[in-house]
Amino acid sequence: MAPITPTQALAELQAGNRRFVAGVPRHPNQDAGHRAAVADGQHPFAVIVGCSDSRLAAEIIFDRGLGDLFVVRTAGHTAGPEVLGSVEYAVTVLGTPLVVVLGHDSCGAVQAARDTARTGTQPPGHLYSVVAAVGPSLRRAAQQGVHDIDGIVDIHIAQTVEVLLGNSPVIAAEVAAGRCAVVGMSYRLAAGEVHQVAPAPEPAPASGPTAAAPEPAAVVPAPTVPAGAAPEPVAS
Q1: Helix, strand, coil in percent for the chain, rounding step 5
Q2: What is the pTM of this model?
Q3: Is 1 helix (H, G, I), strand (E, B) or coil?
Q4: Is 74 a residue whose pLDDT tops 90?
């Protein structure tokens, strides 16, 4: 039976990751019979907003199968309007009870953003949009005195959780009602382990006041740089 509460969904993901780390995966819901069973509809128990890194395959890391996870991936798990809309669809239309922001150590997007801040050299094309979206996390890390790449990654994961809650009243309302939770998790590439870095918010009581959404985290759009002009670096 699929998990129906945020707590159950999180426990299911954690159990699957333990199997993956131990080298004893069950590969559930990957047979021909289940493929046919989910052909007419999906009821995923978790949304994974993950980095696009090829080593961060959610169904493998969490030992799940077809129809279990609703996966949305971008470089550096940046969360623009399309990502927010995709998560809102899963939470409100599909009734998915858990949203996980999944980052990982040695993240290339975070490293690229840090390099841009240090050198002032603008990445080519739309890559700047990814780098700029990581900028608020770099500034928060600097304010907290965090300078190692993996510490910054964990801060960026927590920042993305705030982006989802702060920029989407729809997601925030589902969390406040107790129907959904949003957590941040970090994956260790070598060990295969996932650990939680941003806890799930406590849902408001059904009869109590609705909790206010956290202050939105800014997602900086890529600026238009006039021909011949020096690019403006991302502030660190």
Answers
A1: 40, 15, 45
A2: 0.82
A3: coil
A4: yes
